[in-house]
Amino acid sequence: MPEHARATDHLTPFGRLVRPLHVFAGNELAGVALLLGAAVIAMIWANSPAAPFYEALRTTYLTISLGDLELSKPLLEWINDGLMSVFFFVIGLEIKREILY
User: Fold this and answer.
1) By 3-state DSSP, what share of the chain in percent is helix, strand and coil, each rounded to 5?
2) How many C-beta atoms surround the C-beta of residue 83 within 10 A?
3) How many Å apart are CA 65 and CA 31, to the nearest integer?
4) pLDDT by residue (tens digit) across 61-100?
Protein backbone atom coordinates (compact mmCIF):
# COMPACT_ATOMS: atom_id res chain seq x y z
CA MET A 1 0.00 0.00 0.00
CA PRO A 2 1.43 3.41 -0.89
CA GLU A 3 2.50 5.69 1.92
CA HIS A 4 -0.02 8.35 0.98
CA ALA A 5 -3.00 5.95 1.26
CA ARG A 6 -5.37 6.87 4.04
CA ALA A 7 -7.23 4.59 6.43
CA THR A 8 -10.53 5.55 4.76
CA ASP A 9 -9.45 4.41 1.28
CA HIS A 10 -10.84 0.91 1.84
CA LEU A 11 -14.28 2.20 2.88
CA THR A 12 -17.29 2.31 0.59
CA PRO A 13 -18.66 5.74 -0.35
CA PHE A 14 -21.36 5.32 2.30
CA GLY A 15 -18.71 4.35 4.84
CA ARG A 16 -16.72 7.49 4.06
CA LEU A 17 -19.89 9.54 4.50
CA VAL A 18 -20.82 7.97 7.84
CA ARG A 19 -17.30 7.81 9.32
CA PRO A 20 -17.22 11.45 10.57
CA LEU A 21 -20.56 10.89 12.32
CA HIS A 22 -19.21 7.71 13.88
CA VAL A 23 -16.10 9.52 15.13
CA PHE A 24 -18.25 12.37 16.50
CA ALA A 25 -20.60 9.94 18.28
CA GLY A 26 -17.60 8.11 19.78
CA ASN A 27 -16.48 11.26 21.56
CA GLU A 28 -17.86 11.36 25.11
CA LEU A 29 -18.38 15.13 25.04
CA ALA A 30 -20.25 15.06 21.71
CA GLY A 31 -23.61 14.31 23.33
CA VAL A 32 -23.12 16.99 25.95
CA ALA A 33 -22.19 19.58 23.32
CA LEU A 34 -25.13 18.63 21.12
CA LEU A 35 -27.65 18.76 23.98
CA LEU A 36 -26.28 22.02 25.35
CA GLY A 37 -26.22 23.60 21.89
CA ALA A 38 -29.81 22.56 21.17
CA ALA A 39 -30.98 23.93 24.53
CA VAL A 40 -29.27 27.28 23.96
CA ILE A 41 -30.69 27.58 20.44
CA ALA A 42 -34.20 26.72 21.71
CA MET A 43 -34.02 29.31 24.51
CA ILE A 44 -32.80 32.02 22.17
CA TRP A 45 -35.43 31.13 19.57
CA ALA A 46 -38.27 31.01 22.12
CA ASN A 47 -37.33 34.44 23.50
CA SER A 48 -36.69 36.15 20.17
CA PRO A 49 -39.09 37.97 17.85
CA ALA A 50 -39.56 34.58 16.12
CA ALA A 51 -41.28 33.19 19.25
CA PRO A 52 -44.72 32.94 17.57
CA PHE A 53 -43.22 30.69 14.89
CA TYR A 54 -41.58 28.60 17.62
CA GLU A 55 -44.92 28.21 19.40
CA ALA A 56 -46.69 27.36 16.13
CA LEU A 57 -44.10 24.69 15.40
CA ARG A 58 -44.47 23.18 18.89
CA THR A 59 -48.26 22.98 18.58
CA THR A 60 -48.33 21.63 15.01
CA TYR A 61 -50.09 18.29 14.89
CA LEU A 62 -48.23 15.30 13.52
CA THR A 63 -50.44 12.38 12.52
CA ILE A 64 -49.61 8.75 11.82
CA SER A 65 -52.42 6.69 10.39
CA LEU A 66 -52.72 3.10 9.28
CA GLY A 67 -56.11 2.26 7.83
CA ASP A 68 -58.71 3.24 10.42
CA LEU A 69 -56.13 3.63 13.18
CA GLU A 70 -54.84 7.14 13.73
CA LEU A 71 -52.44 8.67 16.21
CA SER A 72 -52.41 12.46 16.20
CA LYS A 73 -50.50 14.56 18.70
CA PRO A 74 -48.86 17.98 18.79
CA LEU A 75 -45.15 17.93 17.99
CA LEU A 76 -44.35 18.77 21.61
CA GLU A 77 -46.06 15.58 22.82
CA TRP A 78 -44.22 13.46 20.21
CA ILE A 79 -40.97 14.88 21.55
CA ASN A 80 -41.96 14.35 25.18
CA ASP A 81 -43.25 10.80 24.66
CA GLY A 82 -40.87 9.46 22.03
CA LEU A 83 -37.56 11.23 22.22
CA MET A 84 -37.54 11.50 26.00
CA SER A 85 -38.13 7.76 26.36
CA VAL A 86 -35.18 7.11 24.03
CA PHE A 87 -33.12 9.61 26.02
CA PHE A 88 -33.81 7.90 29.33
CA PHE A 89 -33.19 4.47 27.79
CA VAL A 90 -29.74 5.64 26.70
CA ILE A 91 -29.10 7.15 30.13
CA GLY A 92 -30.05 3.81 31.69
CA LEU A 93 -27.60 2.01 29.41
CA GLU A 94 -24.85 4.46 30.38
CA ILE A 95 -25.53 3.95 34.09
CA LYS A 96 -25.49 0.18 33.61
CA ARG A 97 -22.16 0.44 31.77
CA GLU A 98 -20.67 2.57 34.54
CA ILE A 99 -21.81 0.16 37.25
CA LEU A 100 -20.71 -3.04 35.47
CA TYR A 101 -17.39 -1.84 34.09
Assistant:
1) 65, 10, 20
2) 10
3) 32
4) 999 999 999 999 999 999 889 888 998 999 999 999 899 8
Lowest mean per-residue pLDDT among 12-16, 42-46, 47-51, 74-78: 12-16
CA atoms within 13 A on the CB side of 65: 7
Give yes or no for a contact between 73 and 81, defined as CB atoms under 8 angstroms apart.
yes
**Cβ atoms 8, 19 nearer than 8 A:** yes
Q: What is the pLDDT of residues 16-34, one digit of tens each?
A: 888 888 887 777 788 788 8
Q: Determine contact, residues 66/81, Cβ cutoff 8 Å.
A: no
Rounded to 10 degrees, the C-alpha dihedral 79/80/81/87 comes to 80
Q: Concatenated DSSP letters for 62-93?
A: EEEEETTEEEEEEHHHHIIIIIHHHHHHHHHH
Torsions phi, psi of 70, nearest 5? -145, 135
